Amino acid sequence: MAVTIIVGAQWGDEGKGKIVDLLSAEVDVVARYQGGPNAGHTVVVEEEEIVLHQVPSGILHPHTQCMIGNGVVIDPVVLMDEIGFLEKKGITVQGRLFISQRAHLIMPYHKLLDATRERHYGSRKIGTTGRGIGPAYVDKYDRCGIRIVDLLDRTTLKEKLLTIIESKNKVLQRIYDSEAMDAEKIANDYVEFDRRIDSYVKDVSVLINRAVEAGKRVLIEGAQGTMLDIDFGTYPYVTSSNPIAGGACSGLGLGPTKINRVLGIAKAYTTRVGMGPFPTEFDEAFSEHIRKLGGEYGATTGRPRRCGWLDMVVLRMAVMVNGLTDLAITKLDVLDSLDEIKICTGYRTGGRELEHYPAELDLQEQVQPIYETHPGWNRSTQNARTFADLPANAQSYLKRIEELAGVPLSIISVGSRRNQTIIL
Ligand code: IMP
Question: Where are the alpha helices (DSSP H) in 241-355?
Fold first, then answer.
């Protein structure tokens, strides 16, 4: 399919990095449309684990062009470090990575405000990654953001920054009782980025539309997941962008009529990091067991992930709001040693059953999952390369997921390496 969007169908960390890496082998362009360095895409190449935060993981395939769309918020410090890291590994970035001039920048005051506000909120904190994502998007919508294009005009950038930092300092000092920032130093540091970033800056919307018109194969990779979406997620315990498929159109300047396939990625169970509702969450002891089996620690912050059973209410929501054409199920092998595996098929509350994920936060916290229990397979699936190689109980588990989701499964992942994959 010419243009494919890959989205997370749960709370992020579904293993999108591996699937994007796998599919990148057959595409010409890989693009990102939202989020920022809060994302951590882990790819294992020849036994080496590579974690990318801002550069699309397609960069690991020498023939692909990578694009960062206008919908992404960019921390230039992290970006330059990442480019440096890749080049040290012998991966060419120059001439292959293109950054939208319309993308907004994450500034030091965004990171400071993110951390300060979380502290201020105390027990009501969101549990953000602390990367300044929320405050950067706030400024974008408040129309006082700094865009990549602003880096290219040193004089105006400095003037703009001095004014913005002056007002941010008032907020930091008067509302959060925090220290002021050195406006002059930040302005001087950031004008330096123009030289370093200049050659990567392009009109990404024009580039991607040209690529599509030329019949190139384009893979659009979402960060985070459907349940962290600012509109459809577990608000306010969400990220500040639209990870859902619709975000790809506004975040890249590509019309919806150009999209051919929307592939959702879901783990064979569920995880989330940060605070907020999680109806199928395990108790702490079992969470710890699965966390160890699945290596469930945040790729960006190293925080232990909360773990729970697969939730089909969540998955059906993902199918609906993203218009998923198919699903990839990852980390099936993590369940290999369990005697019983549960699937949540619905929620119950106050004597009634809910068909859809509720919008009310208190309801999300109260609902009782309705489970069906499946027998485990007690055998390693890591060497399976076809569906038929899987134990019968694993096959039934997957078929049931497909039936409940209402869309076909197209990929099953049974380990972190590229070849530990079943394509259906
Ligand atoms: P923020 O995106 O840093 O503002 O964090 C908001 C929420 O999204 C927090 O619960 C984070 O843990 C979560 N989050 C952000 N990025 C990711 C990700 O890439 N994977 C999983 N959770 C994420």
Answer: 246-252, 284-294, 312-322
Instruction: Pick the atom of ligand 1 nearest to 303's CA.
Output: 12
User: Which position has the token pair 């619709």?
Assistant: 246
Q: Which residues line ligand 1 (CB under 6 A)?
A: 11-13, 38-40, 126-129, 131, 133-134, 223-224, 228, 237, 239-240, 273-274
Span 136-160, mean pLDDT?
Answer: 92
Domain with 303 in it: what CATH number? 3.90.170.10
Range of the domain at 220: 2-93+203-423
pLDDT given at position 153: 85
Please list, residue by residue across 67-85, b when 16 or more beta carbons sit within 10 angstroms of its beta carbon and e when fewer do: bbbbbbbbbbbbbeebbee
Residues 171 and 209 in one domain: no
- Candidates 36, 2, 38, 7; CA nearest to 20 is 7
User: Is there a single domain that holds both residue 144 and residue 44?
Assistant: no
- Amino acid sitting at position 293: L
Q: Give the ligand 1 atom nearest the CA of 114.
A: 4
Mean pLDDT (whole number) for 294-311: 93
Residue 43 has pLDDT above 80, yes or no: no
**Range of weakest confidence among 44-53, 208-217, 359-368:** 44-53
The protein residue whose alpha carbon is closest to atom 5 in ligand 1 is 128
Specify the ligand 1 atom closest to the Cα of 38.
16
Residue 158 inside a domain? The answer is yes
Q: Are residues 141 and 125 in the same domain?
A: yes
Asked if residue 263 and residue 183 are part of one domain, the reply reads: no
Query: Tell me, what's the pLDDT at 154?
Result: 84
The residue type of 5 is: I
- The answer on pLDDT for 95 being more than 90 is yes
Q: Which residues have CB under 8 Å from 90's CB, separation 6+?
A: none
225 and 193 share a domain? Answer: no
Local confidence band at 1 (pLDDT 50, 70, 90 cut-offs): low
Instruction: Give the mean model confidence (pLDDT) for residues 132-144.
Output: 97
Among the candidates 173, 199, 225, a domain finishes at: 199
Looking at the structure, tell me whether residues 128 and 274 fall in a common domain. no
User: Distance (Å, rounded) from C-alpha 387 to C-alpha 381?
Assistant: 10
Active site residue 53: no
110, 129, 131, 281, best to mutate for ligand 1 pocket (most atoms within 8 Å of CB)? 129
Q: pLDDT (tens digit, 9 = 90+) per residue, 232-255?
A: 999 999 999 999 999 999 999 999
Residue 208 placed within a domain: yes
Domain membership of residue 99 (yes or no) is no
Q: Could you confirm whether 41 is annotated as catalytic?
A: yes
Mutate to test the pocket of ligand 1, among 273, 301, 307, 330 (most ligand atoms within 8 A of CB): 273
